[in-house]
């Protein structure tokens, strides 16, 4: 989870789009589309998206 000053908690697990696609049994393009639509919280670094476990769990609980 991001702290108040924008730093990632070092104990949080970080996933990639392929990781999440495999976990949720969806295609990678579906995961990317949901990220771009704001349905899955993610952080972009360069060309890659990264998803923090704590943010994903919180989002899935809210739905």
UniProtKB/TrEMBL annotation:
Keywords: DNA-binding. It holds the Pfam family HTH_17. Residues 14-58 form the Helix-turn-helix domain. InterPro entries: HTH_17. GO terms for molecular function: DNA binding. The keyword DNA-binding applies. This is DNA-binding protein.
């Amino acid at each position: 989870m991001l702290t108040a000053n924008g730093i990632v908690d070092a104990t949080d697990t970080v996933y990639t789009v392929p990781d999440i696609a495999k976990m949720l049994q969806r295609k990678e393009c579906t995961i990317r589309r949901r990220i771009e639509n704001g349905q899955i919280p993610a952080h972009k670094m360069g060309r890659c998206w990264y998803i923090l476990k704590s943010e994903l769990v919180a989002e899935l609980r809210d739905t």
